[in-house]
Amino acid sequence: MSLRTSLPKIVTDTVPGPKSTELLKVRKDNVTDAVAMLAPVFVDRAEGAMVQDVDGNVFLDFVAGIGVLNIGHSHPEVVEAVKAQCDKYFAPNLNVFNYEQYPRLAEKLNEIIPIEGEKQTILVNTGAEADENAIKLARRYTGRTEIICFAGAFHGRSYMTMAMTSKCHPYKTGFGPLPQGVNRFPFPYCYRCPYGLEKGSCDMHCAKMFEESFFLEYVAPDETAAIILEPVLGEGGFIVPPDEFVQELRRLCDKYGILLIADEIQAGYARTGKMFGCEHWSVRPDIVVSAKSVAGGIPVACVTARKDIMEAVSPGELGGTYSGNALATASALKVLEIMERDDYCAKARHIGDMTMKRFQEMKEKYEIIGDARGVGAMLVLEFVKDRATKEPAKTETKAIINECMQNGLVVLGAGVRDNCIRFLMPLVITDEQVNAGLDILEKAIAKIDAER
């Protein structure tokens, strides 16, 4: 059986095994602990949804590079596309020499990204850099300074994006002062409604609070350049905003001349069952920021906006040395071709249906599961000590993650309370691999739930 079609298998007595343990000492001596580590193992090779470490242990990857590998590890066609580009040139820099891949990728993104009217795209290197450029565009176009973001949001670790990111530790604590002009509004987290209301009977109270309170007491709408929103709240716990809430945002943006920015960095590229998460909305944004899975693991990020917004800036005001380099753009063009040809959106919906069915069954069995939610193959379980009080089960969540690791399944936490586990399995995963991973997960949940 090839690695691509294999199942989890732990061959060492403990995880990490001896070779990974030796390499961990090298990391400890030479790499700061400020760079986080989830799996204490070193990769030898990876294919599809499977990763083999240097000790021969085989892990099922339900993290996919934190949403970078929707197309899976080492997709053969993507590998060949990058190899072919390597034989020609790497990064001549678009500011110096033109090369075809950059405008071809921009052309493709302008075709598929759901913004009304004519669009233009710039390429940068990271999601944080893309968000920064979206804010630059919004401020220049509107002539305003203020930005509205949301509780629970994650937009990056650069200074501007730290200010927009919600969670204090480990992302912001001790790094201040942060840039001004960032204003935070409660996210419509229906499981933990910040207003103590219930979905279905709240009459979208959260959305009404913009004009009834927020625009009166916190930030004036005529000073607001943009509202930036993740179609599915990512680090904050994979929370899907009600469509009525986003409709109200669009109405407010139109009323007050504010731009609506969709941060698709984690939700984009087929993850939610549509190519972009904001396609689930009944309205369209003015700017879309995307990254992570667009190039199958090679760094590139994209800012796509209405043409009139892009034309508000002058030559030289956007861009960067490595931005949209030839390797990344060649990879991205192949990734998008494969995703459309092989209907990765349908793959995500299928994975989501399978997984959510199992989640609901688990929720019936284990009191520690407070909520199961998500869209497509962007799913989360939220763990609580008590379903009535919804007290977060932070320690138990960490224990479940560790138990999964020891048995060959890699999963990642989420949520500002550190009591969620998110699921971002590569979309090339087989049904057998999905079920194998969910079996490991359920055994871990059952064990920790019983020990409480």
From TrEMBL:
NCBIfam families: GABAtrnsam. One of its GO terms (biological process) is gamma-aminobutyric acid metabolic process. GO terms for molecular function: (S)-3-amino-2-methylpropionate transaminase activity; 4-aminobutyrate:2-oxoglutarate transaminase activity; identical protein binding; pyridoxal phosphate binding. It catalyses: 4-aminobutanoate + 2-oxoglutarate = succinate semialdehyde + L-glutamate; (S)-3-amino-2-methylpropanoate + 2-oxoglutarate = 2-methyl-3-oxopropanoate + L-glutamate. Gene3D superfamilies: Aspartate Aminotransferase, domain 1 (3.90.1150.10), Type I PLP-dependent aspartate aminotransferase-like (Major domain) (3.40.640.10). The keyword Transferase applies. Pfam families: Aminotran_3. Keywords: Aminotransferase, Pyridoxal phosphate, Transferase. Its EC number is 2.6.1.19, 2.6.1.22. Its cofactor is pyridoxal 5'-phosphate. The gene is gabT. This is (S)-3-amino-2-methylpropionate transaminase. Pathway: Amino-acid degradation; 4-aminobutanoate degradation. Belongs to the class-III pyridoxal-phosphate-dependent aminotransferase family.
